[in-house]
Design goal:
Elements: H1 10-23, E1 28-32, H2 40-56, E2 60-64, H3 68-71, E3 77-82, E4 85-91, H4 92-97, E5 99-105, H5 106-113, E6 117-124, E7 127-133, H6 138-146, E8 150-153, H7 156-164
Helix pairs in contact: 1-2
Amino acid sequence: GKKKFHHLSLGMKTMVSTVICLASNKEVILLDEPVLGFDAIMRVEFYDMLTGSFQKHPRIIIVSTHIIEEISDLLERVIILRDHEIAVDDSVENLLRSGYSVSGAEEAVHAFIRGRRCLNIDRMASFASAALLGTLSEEDRSRAAELGLELGALELQKLFIYLTNEEAA
């Protein structure tokens, strides 16, 4: 409490700046990498403070961050930039619904993904896991079961990584 601002750690400087920003109660708040320099405990405190501030004073809060998974539960909408252009602008719900993973024997995975938009494939020995963009029909689910494959959801962080990867683009 008695330290001057310029003597604070990076995390504490960021926290003080963020508290001042949120206390302004402006209609639109822009936070660029707001957890920079925070340890895990400070990040949790920050997200609690951000949620509490929004509940008291609902407004638009734009957060630019690379730590997607930590904030994914708080987001309503996601805008992903790639090469200075908007690659994705959608609700979190729609974006998460549009991606899925398929894993199992590598040969079966390759048979399943043929003709689909594949964002990434990870291989280990004869096992493979692929990240796909698109929707799953009941026919797709049946085909995956026939091939002995496991279907799963993709995390927002992984979707972000795959959608901004130049090779996937």
